[in-house]
Design brief:
single chain; Heat Shock Protein 90; 4 domains; 7-stranded mixed beta sheet; 19 helices; 25 strands; 17% strand
């Protein structure tokens, strides 16, 4: 990479002496120690980054830029990190020149290469005291060992040589401490996510996790200029990708990035040499030239995204459709469009709905509600009823009900909105160009505007009602007057003004009486619910709904099959949170490998997940609906079951801790979204290898519990 350096000239005073800077031999060890130990703040990431980018540079130099490099990630079986390229390899002279000299680089005269500083080839010394370089060159395989000797300066020496017909290239190998295996894998996952072409992985394959990342985010915009995506599990991030390295932008204050929403992340693509980075290559040097260049890039990105969304807005059939599309956009495109909506060159007034006051009729709940904000989106088909005549309340209500009935009969509107105001406001609304394309009924067009009145029969006093499933006002319509002449058990709630007195049994919202009856029905308890006035005198055939639920919950809990299912599910929930190993167990990571695991303790924990769970649920029919009934009366009836599970969990925790000590690599989260079967096989191979290795010395005095 060509470094951009300021050009300047200093004229020395002839009357004064001058001296060039130099480095004395006795100071080399001190200076090299500083370079090794202080250059990189993240030494593991530096090793991964420097040797991977060097490998890509080697491929490019050999006209193999599209050939993936080979990366071996450390595992317990092979605790080493390797990077193998398919470049031309290096002669012995080049090996000694490049790897023994700080600052030596062959890539400073071209922007085809990432390397330039001459530090990366020695980055392994920041992590370990030695590493191996294998060169496939000129028909030979030559192995060199670079190490820190007693001089503290460092030496590289050839230790092996043989003829070879393998493809040319360089392979760098660094031994990894077992405690750092997980860190290498995690940092590799972060680094290689944006790598192109994706390396071929050996040892621990992270391709699956990388693919899972991209499947879990929402891609908002992708072009040669940038990648913009939305993720709900992290806050906004920004970075610059140059030569396969993503440099994080920690301080965004100097850049025009305020348009990014909290969950949106931006990766800006730049060419090698466009921006400058620090000596460690861990971050960008935010100099004025870099800041100006990035802001120019960001302007291009914003213009691209604005054009993308504007074309979709212009494709809408009407202003109203454009308004609906605009309102369902996230904050990001709205910010880029400067919160201005333009449709085919015409500025759209998105606040025209504020001319009138609105009531909304939800066609699902069958209820009117006052609303101060109408949210037009494509999720619903809207219809509007407008009082354009300034009618008195009696005529307005009658006409409104008739217009609503007409719209309901069409059965194609998700929301019906009634706008009221004076005649001038209604006329102003109807004259707005934004209303074109909306289904509108004007009250002046309704000819039938009287509602017949039904005279109440006051001599027929009714004290018992049967709930008909209604949930909307007027509440009297939710009950049917009945005469009950049966000796069978009858379930009742006390009502006042046609509303249950107990708020838990409310008919005004979906989670009350309706949900209770639905759950009872799904669980096989089909009942009618009656309403009786407060303090009504009832015989023994009547039972209050709350008492009925308690009896029903105890009946459910007493069923052994259901209780076994409950304990199994509760145990899963408790164990899921112990550590990442049990989390992976209950994600089903090992469900196809139960019989392949040789360690009996691991097998037992894995079997908890697979212990005939499907059979348990089939035996406890409608388990979840019955669970809702049990939950509706509290946990008193399941206290004994909870106690059993607590005792089981206490015994299992000791075994899980033992597993974590013996098999630390199992403390590795699988994908949240899908299960990586390849990782499961790697874990099983690791368990079996460690189990066989420690079989003779293993001393397990833990008592396992019977699940």
């Amino acid at each position: 990479m060509i470094q951009k350096k300021p050009q300047f000239t200093i004229m020395a005073d002839d009357n004064k002496s001058s001296a060039q800077f130099s480095l004395k031999q006795e100071n080399l060890a001190h200076v090299f120690d500083i370079l090794r130990n202080n250059l990189y703040s993240d030494k593991i990431l530096a090793v991964i980054r420097e040797y991977s980018t060097n490998a890509v540079d080697a491929n490019v130099e050999n006209n193999k830029g599209n050939t993936p490099i080979d990366v071996t990630l450390p595992s317990i079986v092979n605790p080493s990190f390797k990077v193998r390229d398919y470049g031309t390899g290096l002669s012995e002279e080049d090996i000694f020149e490049i790897y023994s000299s700080y600052g030596a680089s062959t890539k400073r005269n071209s922007n085809e290469f990432v390397g330039t500083l001459g530090m990366g080839s020695k980055s392994a010394f920041g992590y370990a005291d030695s590493f191996t370089v294998t060169s496939y060159h000129g028909g030979y395989k030559k192995v060199y060992e670079a190490y820190i000797d007693e001089s503290k300066i460092g030496t590289i020496a050839k230790i092996f040589e043989e003829p070879s017909n393998e493809p040319t290239g360089i392979c760098v190998t660094i031994a990894v401490s077992p405690k750092d295996i997980k860190a290498f894998q995690d940092k590799a996952l972060t680094f290689y996510t944006w790598f192109q072409p994706m390396p071929r992985f050996f040892g621990a394959d992270i391709t699956y996790e990388i693919e899972s990342f991209f499947s879990s985010v929402k891609m908002l915009h992708k072009s040669d200029t940038c990648t913009l995506y939305h993720k709900t599990y992290n806050n906004s991030q920004a970075g610059v990708k140059m030569g396969n390295i993503v440099y994080p932008i920690h301080d965004k204050s100097a850049l025009d990035l305020n348009w990014l929403s909290y969950w949106d992340s931006l990766i800006i693509n730049v060419e090698i040499g466009d921006v400058s980075f620090t000596t460690s290559r861990e971050s960008l040097e935010m100099k004025p030239a870099t800041i100006n260049f990035l802001n120019d890039k960001i302007k291009i990105i914003k213009d691209e995204i604005a054009s993308q969304y504007q074309s979709k807005i212009d494709a809408c059939d009407s202003m109203w459709d454009a308004i609906c599309f605009y309102h369902q956009l996230s904050d990001l495109p709205k910010n880029i469009l400067h919160k201005n909506l333009v449709w085919n060159g015409k500025k759209v007034n998105t606040s025209f709905l504020k001319i009138l006051e609105w009531k909304e009729f939800n066609t699902y709940s069958k209820q009117w509600r006052q609303t101060t904000y109408v949210n037009p989106t494509n999720s619903f088909s809207f219809a509007f009823i407008i009082d354009d005549g300034g009618y008195p309340v009696s005529q307005q209500r009658a006409r409104l009900m008739e217009a609503r009935s007409m719209l309901l009969n069409e059965n194609k509107y998700g929301k019906i909105l009634f706008g009221k105001g004076n005649k001038e406001q209604a006329a102003m609304f109807l004259a707005s160009e934004e209303t074109k394309g909306i289904k509108i009924i004007k009250l002046s067009s309704i000819l039938k505007y009287s509602v017949p009145k039904v005279k109440a029969n006051r001599n027929n006093k009714v004290n018992v009602f049967k709930w008909n499933g209604g949930t909307h006002h007027p509440y009297s319509s939710c009950w049917d007057a009945v005469t009950v002449n049966t000796d069978a058990q009858k379930v009742y709630v006390e009502i006042e003004s046609y509303k249950p007195i107990n708020e838990a049994f409310s008919i005004k919202y979906q989670g009350g009486l309706k949900a209770i009856k639905d759950n009872l029905s799904y669980a096989g308890f089909n009942i009618e619910i009656y309403g009786v006035k407060k303090n009504a005198v009832l015989d023994s055939t009547w039972i209050e709904l709350g008492e009925f639920l308690k009896l029903t919950a105890n009946q459910i809990v007493s069923d052994k099959n259901w209780a076994d299912n409950y304990k199994h599910n509760l145990l899963e929930n408790k164990m899921y949170c112990i550590n990442s190993f049990t989390s992976n167990v209950f994600k089903g990571l090992y469900e196809n490998h139960v019989n392949d695991i040789q360690c009996p303790i691991v097998t037992k924990i894995v079997k908890i997940k697979s212990k005939n769970n499907a059979n348990l649920k089939s035996q406890a029919e409608n388990y979840h609906n019955k669970m809702r009934i049990v939950n509706s009366v509290g946990v008193t009836c399941v206290e004994s079951l909870n106690k059993e599970v607590e005792e089981m969990t206490a015994k299992i925790i000791a075994e899980v801790q033992y597993i974590a000590e013996k098999y630390p690599l199992l403390l590795d989260y699988s994908s949240t979204y899908t299960i990586n079967k390849d990782k499961a096989q790697q874990h099983v191979n690791y368990i079996n290898a460690m189990y066989q290795m420690n079989l003779k010395s293993k001393s397990n005095n833990l008592k396992t519990c019977a699940i």
